[in-house]
Amino acid sequence: MRIVIAEDDPLLREGLALLLRAESLDVVGTAGTADGILDAIDVHKPDVAILDVRMPPTHTDEGIVAAVEARRRRPDLAVLVLSAYVEQSFATELLTGGVTGLGYLLKERVGRVEEFLDALRRVAAGGTAIDPEVVAQLFTRSRHDSRLERLSPRERDVLALMAEGLGNSAIAERLVVTDGAVHKHIRSIFAKLDLSPTDQVDRRVAAVLRYLEDVRRRA
């Protein structure tokens, strides 16, 4: 796995690089600016880019802008965005462009090494890894969507965990229910969100995007 890192804090940047190299992962480039990471992506053609949200010169949305641009240039690039806290408008700007090979984590998650590495590998494999706190806040903002109001509390729990990128077995373990119960809840979610099995889309991804799109409209 070839990785580039964009982080303006040199201690965190080098710490991430050391952590990943200790796991025998190939960190091929690092940068302290958004322009620098785009150059590194063009030169090194990595599998995954890890980017901070707030970077120089304005420390507002440079990281998100760079992530969107990186995905435009290389649609197959996996992107893991790190943020000090939940920034809803930035999260939805990135996530509503598609969630395949995409992660959005709070920086505190990096300190939980196994969770961070699991999220990184999941994103690199084409999955998703959305921080539970990000999901919770987006879900709260989107609760007024009429289709989402059809969901039961348990179905909302299941959809939230789907948005984190968890598979059925992991969801069952988290909620302490059977795989069969999770499968039943997911079928009900698809039905209540009007997602037909004949649709030419990934219904799992579409279900997550429904409320993210609603949040973006209301932002």
TrEMBL record:
Molecular function, one GO term: DNA binding
InterPro entries linked to this entry: CheY-like_superfamily, NreC/VraR/RcsB-like_REC, Sig_transdc_resp-reg_C-effctor, Sig_transdc_resp-reg_receiver, Tscrpt_reg_LuxR_C, WalR-like
Assigned keywords, A-Z: DNA-binding, Phosphoprotein, Transcription, Transcription regulation
4-aspartylphosphate: modified positions: D52
Listed GO biological process terms: phosphorelay signal transduction system; regulation of DNA-templated transcription
Keyword flag Phosphoprotein: yes
Stretches assigned to the Response regulatory domain: 2-122
UniProt domain HTH luxR-type: residue ranges: 144-215
Pfam families per the UniProt record, alphabetical: GerE, Response_reg
Signal peptide: none
UniProt cross-references to PANTHER family, sorted A to Z: TRANSCRIPTIONAL REGULATORY PROTEIN NARL-RELATED, TWO-COMPONENT RESPONSE REGULATOR
Protein name (record): DNA-binding response regulator
Source organism per UniProt: Streptomyces flaveus
